[in-house]
Design brief:
It contains 2 helices and 4 strands; from the N terminus they run βββαβα. It has 105 residues and is an alpha+beta fold. The two termini are 19 Å apart.
Amino acid sequence: MFFIFPFRVFWQPITNPGSETAQFGISVSKKFFKQAVKRNKVKRITREAIRIKKGVLLHKLQHDNKQVALFLVYSHHIILPYKQVELSVDNIFTKLLNQISHLSN
């Protein structure tokens, strides 16, 4: 587990031959956003940032023949702009790849 604003990130390596290289989950707390519309907006923004940025992560995981499950928990009370979320997702993937490479060494 690690934290990169505004996400708490939980991940673990998985070994399931039939599954995807990377599995993603996103959670937004009702504590911070009472209205489902706002929670869904945060999830949509985050999913789009993951879709755009996941290519590098997937390529590296396939090259190293690894699989990972990743769960992001949005931990901020304001909906951040897309560019800031995209930058955070990029930083998460960088740190994740770094931790995976240290794990295998």
